[in-house]
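Checklist before submission:
- one chain only
- standard amino acids only
- sequence pasted in full

Submission:
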Amino acid sequence: MQSELKVKFNARDEFVLPLEHVPQMDSHAARQWLDGEFTRMECEPIRGSGKVLNADKVVRVAQAAGVSGFANAEWAQAFASAARAALAKDVIVIDTENTAISF
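Returned file contents:
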């Protein structure tokens, strides 16, 4: 079965990270990693209520990292591991332009 994380920035910038060889992260560690990156990158909540779901964190961190963040293979691998564990999905597609995520 296919297992990958795809991050689309625009029509020409897209990153596909196969998840088969990404180290496993437990869900608690994944949430901590995403929380840390969300804070470090000064991300804003998507929802007006201020509630931030795991999927929202994944999208906002991807947006904040941008193309240059995903060009850093070590960071991209950590992001992929955290996203996979936090969302409990093997196929994740993040559309940063439209602030959307699909599985």
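Reviewer check: The mean pLDDT is 94.
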